[in-house]
Amino acid sequence: MVYAGMGPDYRVLVDKARKVSHTGYKRIYNEYPPTRILVQDVARVVQEATQSGGVRPYGVSLLIAGWDEGVEPESEEAQKGDNEDEPKKATGKTGGILKGGPSLYQVDPSGSYYPWKATAIGKHATSAKTFLEKRYTEGLELEDAIHIALLTLKETIEGEMNGDTIEIGKFE
Which CATH number describes the domain made up of 2-116? Predict the structure, then answer.
């Protein structure tokens, strides 16, 4: 989870996201929530602040990324054996997740959230999004995606890019 906006608001939301993730989901299902479920919970907290009296809205936009494992309930596994040529369909039981993989969501200060393949938030978000739209293609290799991300930063940030100002991480 990364943010653009007010740091203290971000820290409050991270704390609430951890609590929701642990108490609201992990204790019940003994696993961490899919990214979409976590995003919905964080967006709900943000949206409630826009309608509550005596509370100011959160001054932060968030990008939440995650890796979700594929989920196939028993009923879908049973259906799969009948005709494997048919495309799989998402049901409420899977939460819309048919296969594992990366996911990226943006949460606005209004509490609205959107899925993205690539996006940016912050001061130069418009130019960064334009840059990404020109270069992003479906099925991009990891090295190419990292290269595009670095080029986007180079085009849009002020100041020097070096090991002290940029961090890249990958997990397998």
Answer: 3.60.20.10
CA distance 26 to 55: 29
For residue 50, CA distances in Å to 40, 45, 166 come to: 15, 9, 33
Cα 165 from Cα 172, distance rounded (Å): 24
Per-domain residue ranges for the chain?
2-116, 122-160
Q: Any idea what DSSP says for residue 25?
A: I
Distance CA 150, CA 108 (A): 24
Q: Using one digit for the tens of pLDDT, what is the confidence trace for 76-115? A: 555 555 555 555 554 444 455 556 788 999 999 999 999 9
Write down the pTM of the prediction.
0.79
Chain CA centroid to CA 121, Å = 12
C-alpha to C-alpha distance for 63 and 2, rounded to whole angstroms: 5
**How many residues does this entry show for the chain?**
172
Amino acid at position 109, single letter:
P
- Output DSSP code: residue 172: -
